[in-house]
Amino acid sequence: MPAPHNPFKAALKNGETTIGCWLSLGDPLSTEIAGTAGFDWLLIDSEHTPYDITRIRLQLMALESSDSHAAVRVPVGETWILKQVLDAGAQTVLVPMVETAEQAAQLVNDVRYPPTGGRGVGYSGARCSRFGAITDYGPTADDQVCLLIQVENRAGIANLDDILAVDGIDGVFIGPADLSADMGFMGQLTHPEVQATIKGAFERIEAAGKAPGVLATTPEFTQDCLDWGARFVATGLDLLILAKSLRELAGTWVPKGG
Question: Which residues are known catalytic residues?
Answer without folding.
Answer: 48
